[in-house]
Write a structure and sequence with these properties.
- Helix content is about 25%, strand content about 35%.
- With about 70 residues, it is an alpha+beta fold.
- It has one domain.
Length: about 70
Amino acid sequence: MILEGIAQEVNISDKSTVKKLDAVSRAKYKMPLMVVSEAVFFRVRPRFVLAWTESDFPNNATRWQF
């Protein structure tokens, strides 16, 4: 998958945002979000997304524009 868009740094001192990210990490990876002082998080607001499966590329390539 390729994602194009505007990236913005997430303020890790924002406890509400970190709590949401932690919940997603626990649900998806079954482990808490690891936040260390040198960690940097980014949020991407997509403009374009390209996706495909390896087995049928390029026949099933798909492009979305937001």
